[in-house]
Fold:
Amino acid sequence: MEHRRVVMEELMDKINVLRREFGDTNARLTEDVEFATNKNIKLEREKKGRILEIMRKDQKILRLQTSVSDEKIEKFIEKEHKKTDVLHKSIMEAHKEILIRQEEQDGELKPWRKCRICFEEYEEELEHSPRVLECGHTVCYRCLWKMADPDGVLCPFDRITTICRKRNLRLLLKNFAVLQM
Structure:
């Protein structure tokens, strides 16, 4: 019995030691969690502060940019557009002249300048305007009209159907690249 009491006291002492260790560990963990939470809060505040600083700088830059006269900017842009248009037109004309000379030397039109079905040259007018099928091939509007059926237009080159009603054929994209060359 005495032995039992001694064993019980030893066990109670061990339990008390374990309880104290558990309490100490729990207190340390609580402190660590509080420290980490405080550190995260501090980092979040710093991050928000940096974001606000960047936003202030952006606003300052915007104010400086808008202080430049909008009229001057518009005039400058308009002037540059005119220069670009003039250059574009002269380049296109030069390109056209080169093609015409090459065609005169060869004695016939380049194959991409005419419809591959009726062999008529593409033109600005509706009937001979180049239209692009969904597959990417180009044919003139007149041939497109002749090929159209209720299901759409079946490309004669690769047999891919372009779904478009006959009355909406005008809505197919016009191949301006062919017209401008």
